Structure formats: structure tokens, C-alpha cells
Amino acid sequence: MSGFAINGFWLAIASAEHVRRGRMEGIMQVCHGKAAPLRRIRPGDGIVYYSPTLRMGDRTPYRRLTAIGIIAAGDPYPFDMGNGFHPWRRHVTWMDAHDASITPLLPHLSFSAGRRNWGQSLRYGLIRIQQHDFACMKHAMHSAQEQLFSLDV
């Protein structure tokens, strides 16, 4: 994506089902549609989604990275989903990647290394991460894709 320098890196948290819907629409939402967190993100920033569950409200752990992309040009905007719900969104250019377990990465990520309760930092729904974290997650999500292709031999 030319014209943008990646200045920031972010980890968003949502169910895998919600992330998949956002990928199909080329958008992201965070924190139940709040605008303020999306205003912290800038075009060209890297975004990764972590999904603790498959569906919102489900208690069955999923614990996977489910999307990775670059924030597209433009500002956050409200969207009418009906029934009076107007969540804020941002456009994202999603990369081709596959879901990858976060578990093997935990000792290497700045927000989780050496922290027993690393998940507490995710309760806000969007956190700034380090470039190294983004690179590790990107590698894991692309490695998962390569492993799938190697099984097709």
C-alpha cells in the first residue's frame, strides 16, 4: 500500500465471527462500535485481530489471531445496522492470512511475555502493540497458510 508509512501497530479483540464479517466487508469495528478507539488509529497503521472465542458470548476458547491488515485512507464513520444501532467503522485492506494460535507467540510478545494474566490488557478491545509483535503475528498467520498448502501435496 503505497503512500502510507506504518507508524502504529494495533491489536483489536473481537469474536472470530465478527472479524470474518468485517473482513468480508473490508472494515473493522471495535469496542461495540465506539468511535473514540478508531480515532486513535491512522491510515497506514497495521492492525491484527485476536479472537478469544468463535462467537460473542460463547465461553468456548478459540484464542487465535483471525485477521491482519493495513488501515485504509479515510476517517472513521458511523454505519446504520438497523434497530437504532450505528457503530463506527474504519476501512481496512486485509491481507491474505489464516487463523493462527496465539499460544506459541505469548512468550515473545511485548504485552504478554512474562505475564501470567496477559489477557487483562486486552479487556479494552484495542491496544497499541510493538512493530515486533506485529511482525511475529504476521509470520504466524502466513506460516499457518504455508502449512495448509504443504498438506495439499
Automatic annotation (TrEMBL):
Q: Which residues form the EVE domain?
A: 9-137
> Of which family is this protein a member?
Belongs to the UPF0310 family.
Please state what the protein is called: UPF0310 protein OQ252_04740
Organism (species): Acetobacter farinalis
